Amino acid sequence: MKIQTLLWTVLATLAVSAETRTINMLPGENWWGVDNNFGRAMPFNAKSDFSCDLRMDNYAHQSLSLLVSDKGRAVWCAEPVGVKISGGVVRFESDCGEIVLKEDAGRNLAEAFRYASKTWFPPTGEEPELLYFAAPQYNTWIELTYHQNEKDILAYAQSMLDHGFPAGVFMIDDTWQHGYGTWEFDSRRFSDPKGMMDKLHAMGYKVLLWMAPFVSMDTPEYRRIQFAKNPNDVKGWPTKGGFLMQSTKKGWGGVPPAARVEWWNGVSALLDFTHPNAVAWFTEQLERLRRDYGADGFKFDGGSVAFYSGTRGLEGSSRKTYAHDPSVSPAAQSALYGQFALKYKGSEYRNGFGFAGKPVIMRLHDKAHSWEALQRLVPDMLAAGFVGCPFICPDMVGGGAWSAFLPGAPFSEELFVRSAQVQALSPMMQFSASPWRYLNDANQKIVRDVVALRQRFAPKFVELAKRAAKDGEPIMRNLEYAYPGLGYAEVKDEFLMGEDLLVAPVVEAGVATRKVVIPPGTWTADDGQVYVGPKTVEIATPLARLPHFVRGEELRK
């Protein structure tokens, strides 16, 4: 299938008119889905007062116009919707897509989700990059921030191996490049980028480069893209330039200016993926990085629905696409960027609408170095499963806020350790801050021990990823999904990996014990204690302990 044909398949359907649908909740009914940014607000029920608009934002996470309930019901729309839940009523509002309510999708939450997955977003069957599940991943952001450079990147990569961590996916973060849109290693800080990449590969890493759809203004690349008057001005392109999101304002010489988009690094132009030249130009940049330097993939950042909707820009919502088509919604534009990223297997992605069933590695949005942020990890990752994204990665161990790791900033070794424990037995684990730079010897050992624990379970996690690629079910599951009807809907601080590993991490400061809901069956705890559920027990939680429980002889070995 030609690339442009593939891209246009994600655009909004023109034939369906706007629609609104309200669903009255059943007594005791609980719902999950829509966007995993709101994991802590789930389940949605008669007590909930919630609203979001996927047409204008995906809230820096993964979204899908789907809700599934523990009464076996499902509501779905192929297009982004506005959602309001209040007074026991669910309201879906669509601009251009049919809203479907399936009253008998199943008898419980799991059956409703399986029906939704099979019917509306069946998995492709293609496996994601399995190294993400077989070993921790590493990111240079916290250590180097806006000072990425060859010498320190190599030293950071080697230090992980020297401290006993296994090689895995390795991400070189923002500012490796000369500028946004100038996707070339900055020669001032990288004297031999190909040699650096070769050394990282020799260490056993697969290397990703940070990437975003932004183009800095007042640069040669911007002028080349925006103001080309004939095909010869832009090498090899079949039509004129101007493949950035356009403002509706008039510009110099009658050329519409690019829409100015505010994002975390300033103000930039934004690639318009409805334009074939944007796809061709971006492809050329990335293929060159793979060909000349051996990049294994990319960390695709940006691309939020909000950037395309105009809610994050200096012109408000007054912007247009190359297609000049109102059916090309902001969510569809974001999806086009994600569709582009699918060409590069093994890459990581964060923003997007409608990636359910795809073999995409997703991550949560950056989390602060705080207990409140830590408490979001489990429910947000659980919610990712209900928007069809089972291949979910939490943020960096200790949080992705680099300012928390500056000298003199408030920093908690306990929080860092507990963060590592939450991630150790989740689908993926990502380090950025080096534990030996911030922790005492005892706490460094705890972190090394949880990495070793993860490696013991890694073969199981790889198998779970393979299975999810075929059946679309979450890898990381809440108890209500696995044990319906037992009152587990509100359990948000423990989770199952598959069917046989129950994890109950500590996410509060200074607690010496915690309660754990033990589901039906015989479970052996990490300390050797055997529990027969269903029951709730209180266990000791010293800092060195990551409470987890296994069922079945295979995982006990």
Walk me through the structure:
- This protein is 29% helix and 23% strand.
- By secondary structure, the chain is an alpha/beta fold.
- A hairpin with a 2-residue loop joins β16 and β17.
- The longest helix has 31 residues.
- The protein is globular and about 75 Å long.
The beta-strand count equals 30
If helices are DSSP runs of H or I spanning 4 or more residues, what is the number of helices? 16
- Rg (CA only): 24 Å
Average pLDDT figure: 90
Keyword list:
557 residues; alpha/beta; 8-stranded parallel sheet; 6-stranded antiparallel sheet; 29% helix; 23% strand; globular
Outline the fold blueprint:
Elements: H1 3-8, E1 19-24, E2 31-35, E3 49-53, E4 62-69, E5 74-77, E6 81-86, E7 89-94, E8 99-102, H2 109-120, H3 131-134, E9 137-139, H4 141-144, H5 150-162, E10 169-172, E11 177-179, E12 182-185, H6 193-202, E13 206-211, E14 214-215, H7 220-226, E15 246-247, E16 261-263, E17 266-270, H8 276-293, E18 297-300, H9 305-309, E19 319-320, H10 330-341, E20 348-349, E21 352-353, E22 361-363, H11 371-385, E23 392-393, H12 413-424, E24 430-431, H13 435-438, H14 441-471, E25 476-477, H15 479-482, E26 495-497, E27 501-503, E28 513-525, E29 530-540, E30 548-550, H16 553-556
Parallel strand pairs: 4-21, 9-10, 9-24, 10-13, 13-18, 18-20, 20-22, 22-23
Antiparallel strand pairs: 1-7, 2-4, 3-6, 4-5, 5-8, 6-7, 11-12, 14-17, 15-19, 16-17, 25-26, 26-27, 27-30, 28-29, 28-30
Helix pairs in contact: 11-12, 12-14
